[in-house]
Amino acid sequence: MSTDSYSPPAALNAAGLRLAVVVSRFNGFVTDRLREGALEAIAETGGAIAERDIVQIPGAWEFPVTVRALAERDRYDAIVCLGAVIRGDTPHFDYVAGEAARGIADASAATGIPMAFGILTTDTVEQATDRAGGKHGNKGYDAAMTAIEMAILLRGLRAET
């Protein structure tokens, strides 16, 4: 991993955590690699994820409604959001990336379920592939580690009350 990758606390243990991974199919040559990284992080920390807990959606625009529906099931401790929005020649990028981010943040705040933002927002395909297992690590891995850390943190905070 590169130096700009996520650096987890010494011992994250995902055993027993209920995780969902939501992956955009758009730019699949990038998002497939992000999903692989996320699943690797979950396995490395002792977690497990069922195939039914990996949800594929068409694109980044669909994240807000999907993650809110998953969170409202009251089944998950955290949700990992993985996608790639690559800037083009039109302002479409700004709308999709911004609304996906806002919608995920709103859904997380409204439901209390941590949702790790592993949606790449890059200017070029090269930047995206560099962050999906290339020279800048795998942001899918990083997002899963963030989700695990937040699930553990919130579990502990809620147990204190």
Describe the structure.
This protein has 161 residues and is an alpha/beta fold. It has a single domain (19-159), classed as Lumazine/riboflavin synthase (Rossmann fold, 3-Layer(aba) Sandwich), CATH 3.40.50.960. Helix content is 46%, strand content 20%. It contains five helices and six strands, in the order βαβαβαβαββα. It has helices spanning 28-44, 63-72, 92-111, 125-130, 139-159, and strands at 19-24, 54-57, 78-86, 115-122, 132-134, 137-138. A four-stranded parallel sheet has the order 2-1-3-4, with helices on both faces. The chain has a two-stranded antiparallel sheet with strand order 5-6. Strand 1, helix 1 (28-44) and strand 2 (54-57) form a beta-alpha-beta unit. Helix 1 (28-44) crosses helix 5 and helix 2 (63-72) runs parallel beside helix 3. It is globular.
